[in-house]
Amino acid sequence: MRVTNSMMVRNMLDHLKNNRGDLNDLNEQLSSGKLFQRPSDAPIKVSDSMNYKSQLNRNSQFQRNLNQAENWLNTTESSLKSGTEVIQRARELTIYAANDSMTSNDRKMVAKEMKELRDELVDISNAKLGDSYIFSGQNTETKPFEVVDADPDNHVKYTGDTNSVSRRLNENVEMDISLTGKEVFKAEIENINKIYNQLEDASVSGEDIGSNLSEMDESINKFAELRSEVGGKLQRTGNIISRLEANEVHLRDLKSKNEDADLAEVITELKMEETVYRASLASGSRIMQQSLVDFIR
């Protein structure tokens, strides 16, 4: 095959174009720090990076759910702790007032503190996390209890629902994080209210007042069990958070290895391509210096 000057020039220009393209790719990698800029540059790596990004997004959502769950459970535990202290104090007053040597006036003085304890327990049951009432089930915009002054035997009415609030903590775990006011506080509020009414009634004996102690002991035990249950859930959420944080570090490392350029290697390749490109230009300049007679042969 005859090789003409025009063929040599055309080949030289093609090689220069390819060399310039390689040089541009390496410049983009160096300036961006990424191995690819467009999906067409490395389809498989792009697909892997999208998969890692999707996993990281799910991981981040699970961590947000866990933070919400921990805040909810911590608020619940704090309310249960405060509720336990109220019931324990009410129990102490009940023991004190059960003494038949006390006069009706003495018991009315105790009744004042008992009334404050009852109201405080109602206030604790209406605990909120942000704008959400935590003891109203899924009806979080409504206070769990409404005071009913017209009915002395039923001081409060539960206005929430019995549906549980849950959070998805990872691919395989969905946790119920809620307790309803009906199961936690209703009986305790009514019991303290009953004792308050008895203390206000001069005809009630100390034995009748003391008969409430067994219910109060049951309430204290119930609150201890509920706090233990909440504590176990908090322990589990802490363990899951640790695993998710470790998994996030692992996924970010994989994503970085898949798409981040090795700058030292890119610089080395860039210098090599610059040398090749300069050599191509030098070679091309010699070809372009041929005479017009050489081109028309």
Structural class: mainly alpha
Oligomer: single chain
Shape: rod-shaped
- Helix and strand run: HHHEEEEEEHHHHHH
Main location: other
GO cellular component, one term: bacterial-type flagellum hook
Domain Flagellin C-terminal: 215-295
Family: Belongs to the bacterial flagellin family.
Question: What does this molecule look like?
Answer:
With 297 residues, this protein is mostly helical. The protein has a domain at 74-253: Up-down Bundle (f41 fragment of flagellin, N-terminal domain). It has helices spanning 5-32, 43-97, 104-125, 181-184, 186-200, 206-210, 213-259, 263-288, 292-295; strands spanning 128-129, 132-133, 145-147, 156-158, 166-168, 174-176. Helix 1 (5-32) runs antiparallel to helix 8 (263-288). It is rod-shaped. The chain starts with a helix and ends with a helix.
Outline of this structure?
The protein is mainly α. The protein is 69% helix and 5% strand.
